[in-house]
Amino acid sequence: MRAKYVMKNIIWYVTAVFVLASASLVNAEERTGWGFFSVPLSVRQAGMAGVTLGRTDPMSQWTNPALSVRQESVWEAGISGDSLFGLSTGGSLAAGWKALPDWAFGSAVSYFGSEVTEYDAHAHDTFRSIRQRSVVGGLSAAWRWEMIGLGAALKAGSESIDGATETALAADLGAVADYEAFSAGLALRNMGTGQGKTDSVDVNLPLELRAGIAYTLKEYGVTGVVEYVGIKDADGVANIGVEWWPMKVLGLRGGVADLGTAGGRQLTLGFSAFHRTTGLDYAYALHTLGSTNRVALTYAFGG
């Protein structure tokens, strides 16, 4: 009983601390540095507005390294492909290894590319294209103690625009906690980031803080999540996601992202379907800029 009482107070205390800390990161200016490092790689997350406390996959570690402790099998792997607004494409690879009951390790790498037509100052077509390429990757480790999971990650990114390339390094810390039907997730991302800059490339990775809380109705297979994202020198946003598992092999999800910004909200939908240890995930998002489609395959083995 005492352990449950302590755990309950830890969850509420840590959640309050992260929400207050998020407010300190928010500045009501235009959003800057919301780069590829901040985009969730997990297609399951993308289907429920980017929140982190739904059913995890190997790519969830990118947003919160502590989520690796929720891995059920000894080995998990995933591959995904993205089409963003019809202007760019990307893909990701991720893997997780549950080395011990309380320890898990992960890795992820992702690619993003786009090509747009260049116009001069008078809006005339220059008959040439501007190519942008980004590659990011990282390693993570997570440890579980009772109902608390803690994780850390190191990551690196490289961005290239028309041959000019710059790189940056960053570190993340994360925590998750579960108490009965409640869950809380916290992540401090892009700490100690190295910022690279050339005449045409500016890799800017501002400090980011994510704080979320979830409640699960286990008898109905429904989980609701609210998550707040604060970015230094940028607008703070709230994301709301819902996930429903009507049966063990099928999950449905949806959400609303970017609440509280003038740039427009995103409506998201997604599903997961399983056959034994293989899963298919899909996510669709509708934004004022257009729509995005993301699909992933996951595979688990070893228990």
How do the strands and helices of this protein lay out in sequence?
Layout: H1 2-25, H2 43-47, E1 75-84, E2 88-100, E3 103-119, E4 125-145, E5 148-161, E6 164-179, E7 182-191, E8 196-197, E9 202-203, E10 208-217, E11 222-231, E12 237-247, E13 250-259, E14 266-275, E15 278-287, E16 290-301
Antiparallel strand pairs: 1-2, 1-16, 2-3, 3-4, 4-5, 5-6, 6-7, 7-10, 8-9, 10-11, 11-12, 12-13, 13-14, 14-15, 15-16
Structure description:
By secondary structure, the protein is mostly beta strands. The chain has one domain: Porin. The chain has helices spanning 2-25, 43-47; strands spanning 75-84, 88-100, 103-119, 125-145, 148-161, 164-179, 182-191, 196-197, 202-203, 208-217, 222-231, 237-247, 250-259, 266-275, 278-287, 290-301.
Strand order of the largest sheet: 1-2-3-4-5-6-7-10-11-12-13-14-15-16
Number of domains: 1
**CATH level-3 fold name:** Porin
Question: CATH homologous superfamily name?
Answer: Outer membrane protein transport protein (OMPP1/FadL/TodX)
Mean pLDDT, nearest integer?
81
| Rg, Cα atoms, Å | 19 Å
Distinct helical segment count = 2
Q: Work out the strand percent.
A: over 45%
Cα-to-Cα separation, first versus last residue: 31 Å
The level of helicity is: under 10%
> Using DSSP, what is the number of strands?
16
- The CATH architecture comes to Beta Barrel
